[in-house]
Write a structure and sequence with these properties.
The protein is mainly α and about 170 residues long. The chain has eight helices and no strands. The longest helix is centred in the middle third of the chain and has 32 residues, at about 95-125.
């Protein structure tokens, strides 16, 4: 088994959870509200290039808690329940397990960030604005990287300690 198999399984499990669906819907809703408000309070010309400067603070405040939320229970929850021994008895190593958990969870959050920014861009462009693809795509790529960093902090904290409480305290304490 490779890390891709672990990532695929972990992505499915994460998307089945209610809390992850609520977090992703909240992210999309926040960017949609920002995109709805931006043409009203922004200066002309209304473009997606200027929208990213409007929404960057909002995303900078929302992505870290969601990333830590997605990552802190990746391994610690299984360690608490004893399922980690079973997972390590399968034909993949520790590195593949940690990398797969990170890739699956970061992929889910990256998909949420891309979907949220796509909805925001559509709301900005449709009624009033114009699309500036290069700054918007650069901002999207940087937002995905930022989200992956925070998921990595959560997964790393989860790999270091044995309980989810300690993992959450370690990840939030960073």
């Amino acid at each position: 088994m490779t890390w891709r198999t672990v990532a695929r399984r972990d992505r499915r499990l994460l998307l089945d959870g209610r809390l992850s669906k609520v977090a992703l819907a909240g992210l999309v809703g926040l960017v949609a509200v920002a995109a709805y408000v931006y043409p009203v309070v922004g200066r002309d010309p209304i473009t997606t290039g200027r929208f990213v400067t409007f929404v960057d603070g909002w995303l900078g405040a929302v992505i870290p808690p969601i990333g830590v939320l997605f990552g802190y229970g990746a391994l610690a929850r299984e360690h608490e329940s004893g399922a980690l021994r079973l997972a390590l008895s399968l034909p993949h190593g520790r590195v593949a397990l940690v990398l797969g958990r990170f890739a699956g969870r970061a992929g889910v959050l990256a998909g949420g960030v891309v979907a949220a920014l796509a909805v925001g861009a559509a709301l900005v462009v449709y009624p009033f604005g114009t699309l500036e693809p290069l700054p918007f795509l650069a901002f999207t790529a940087l937002s995905v990287a930022y989200a992956a960093v925070w998921v990595g902090i959560g997964v790393g904290a989860s790999a270091l300690v044995a309980t989810t409480r300690r993992a959450l305290a370690l990840a939030v304490g960073d």
